[in-house]
Design goal:
Strand order of the largest sheet of chain A: 6-5-4-7-8-10-9
Shape of chain A: elongated
Number of helices of chain A: 16
Oligomer: homodimer
Distance between the termini of chain A: 67 Å
Number of strands of chain A: 10
CATH superfamily of the largest domain in chain A: Vaccinia Virus protein VP39
Chain lengths: ~425, ~425
């Protein structure tokens, strides 16, 4: 590959050429130290990545995925220009190149083993991310503390509106009826559980192994006076017991791990049997691909985003019918834009609380996620399913798109068997 | 198992017991010749199956799937009472029993091999079903000759309305824009191709290997004056050439065969690339299961209904994103009820055209399909997908549920990348 504006030293030239070979001819400028930088010939760059020294550049060539994350978090790499746009073009370029490094598969497997989501492993993995402190998440999440993809009925909706719309969207898909029982696996700070109990008149049992989140959720349920209708249980989804009408899990499948899908399926069948229905909301992929090693190392240990076909391993053994799959990937990009915007506005505070390394690592995680959802490297699936004996579900999906939001005006169910 | 009303001969008693062991304790009465019949103890029967002789009963015990189909078509078995309801309870009972006969797997593999959907095999398979004569299908299909699952916006819609609504539903999901090009694989009698061209202003190239259907479609396109905008090509989907904005296939995947999904994926990518979008509408399953051997032997040679995960084999190799999956299984049950009703009203005519055997075999196929969709042994999936470079799709699915049906009033596209 020809690189314009040749660098001063032939080692640097060689390394930059190798870097572009690894990531493909991305429209970016690569600058070393205080230099002008290099751009693939004939390409107009969208941003400049400034690499502090030759050592950092060499690490980037050796392993762009880990190398970039580590160096960015440590301040040895800076991006001048639109950070998200920069990540987007690099993701697209890497996606077209598809030349995985020989050792990335080995390292990935080794990480899988180290971070396996056993009962004990999950506790450690979840603790590392979700127990960072509620005060931190309060800085940049919405009022209800919903840390999953929102649903924007129109692109002008606020984050607050979109998170409530998402909860309604889920409840309507599940066709919750007053008096029914719902089990939630992985309930975060409890917003959905409380929303279901308050606005749909159901009884909820919600599970989570994050101490901080459960602590917050329980206090909040008491505050708003619904602790008699929502029970927050600090336990693993594998220990869910009892019988319920519906199962819901929003943003937990990513932490279950492919090798444990069968266990999750067993839990679902144990709780809702053949007559219930359920919804899985999760980050997915177009095909099997490991989660970024840097993200697993620094942000989400043990995480995996399944292809849609892989997610079916939860449902197939129990003869569950998939009724509806919706891809909300652009909604997640928009949700993350809101989060990143709020995060940037309090980045000094974050740095003061957790240090500069943390603040930069989290910026990269949020911005990288926006880029991943925009470019389609990540998807967001909502999968609605029902058991073989579940004979009542709506005739069409039109009821999801009426204006009625209250319990009273929800549509009558249509009997499937006439 | 205890059987009430003991039969006259101990061989018959033994055979009936074996039959109920094979199919489970279904709520049916089994009568031999002119006898009263036997019912599983404590169960109230929904219908009576009258088996002419001991030989037929023995064949039923040996292989209920093939045995029932063959004997019913030959008139050696009759069902007194609601035929569909009878099939439903038997399907449910067999589904709960899950005791496949040892040789059914072997026979199934052998049938797969015999009926493999190679270029030549497909020609033979499709010819056997779809070239039975257009006059036959005209007897019981809707005016537009649509031989796939309809979409009933309300359960009171007529079949005619529901088939048009289905075509609009597909066109809206694909967000067809005037002037765009669409390729259709497996176009039946051409109704959808002509609908797209007439009402959505697109140019269509439609493929089919059924001589009779292509003949009908071409004549019809000339009659309604749109032969300049719809081209009907008598060829296999594997020979599709050219570049298109959208790919659509309604009711063909069932005839492709699991071992050829990769080929279909290649064809799709060759025609719409990374920037197009497409829709696959097909009969599916909750998990991997071969199509009924009797149906493959007598009605649909080479047919296979995939699990959703299996259908992903078409899309995954090319990084296509699944945007939307809708399960319309109850709509197919309703569609088939309309077809069976019309079929029954002209059953004498059918018998006069093709004989009693044919008329009974087709009644069993239609009634059995209703039962299969009602009980969830079969599903109907519409899968909407888009390429990695397709940046334009609607923000939500609300546009599918507005009243606007015309080209002019269709919603504006929202740019995904803001």
């Amino acid at each position: 590959m020809r690189i314009n504006q040749a660098p001063s030293h032939r080692w640097d030239r060689w390394l930059v050429r190798r870097l572009f070979q690894a990531i493909g001819p991305a429209p970016i400028r690569v600058a070393l130290g205080g230099g002008d930088g290099f751009v693939p010939a004939g390409i107009s760059p969208v941003a400049t990545v400034r690499i502090r020294d030759r050592r950092t550049l060499a690490q980037l060539v050796l392993d762009p995925e880990i190398g970039f994350g580590e160096a960015y978090a440590e301040g040895r790499i800076q991006v001048e220009g639109d950070f998200v746009r920069f990540l987007e073009v690099v993701y697209t370029s890497i996606g077209n190149t598809r030349r995985p490094f020989w050792y990335s598969g080995v390292v990935s497997k080794w990480m899988d083993w180290l971070q396996n989501n056993t009962l004990r492993g999950s506790l450690a993995n979840i603790h590392r991310h979700y127990d960072l402190g509620n005060d931190f998440y309060k800085l940049w999440l919405d009022h209800e503390m919903v840390y999953t993809c929102a649903y924007f009925p129109s692109s002008s909706a606020t984050l607050e509106e979109a998170q409530i719309a998402k909860m309604d969207h889920v409840c309507r898909k599940l066709q919750l009826q007053p008096g029914e029982t719902v089990v939630e696996a992985g309930c975060g700070w409890g917003a959905l559980a409380m929303h279901m109990a308050r606005h749909y008149g159901v009884l909820v049992k919600a599970f989570n192994i994050s101490k901080e989140q459960i602590f917050y959720a329980r206090r909040r349920a008491v505050e708003i006076g619904i602790s008699d209708r929502v029970e927050f249980i600090e336990d693993d989804y594998r220990n869910v017991s009892g019988k319920f009408d519906a199962f819901v899990s929003v943003g937990m499948l990513e932490h279950v791990g492919l090798s444990h899908y069968r266990e999750l399926g067993n839990v679902i069948h144990r709780t809702i049997g053949d007559s219930g229905r359920g919804l899985l909301h999760f980050i997915g992929r177009n095909y099997h691909e490991e989660f970024s090693r840097w993200i697993r190392k620094r942000i989400f240990p043990g995480a995996y985003a399944p292809a849609l076909a892989e997610a079916m391993r939860v449902l197939e053994p129990w003869d569950y019918s998939v009724l509806d799959v919706e891809n909300l990937r652009l909604h997640y990009a928009k949700t993350l834009e809101h989060w990143l915007d709020r995060f940037e506005r309090c980045s000094h505070q974050v740095a003061a609380m957790y240090g500069d390394w943390f603040q930069r690592a989290w910026r990269l995680y949020l911005a990288g996620s926006i880029a991943a959802f925009r470019t389609g490297r990540l998807q967001l699936f909502q999968v609605l399913f029902a058991g073989s004996q579940c004979r009542e579900f709506p005739w069409t999906r039109a009821h999801l798109y009426t204006d009625a939001q209250s319990v009273e005006s929800r549509p009558r169910w249509t009997h499937a068997m006439s």
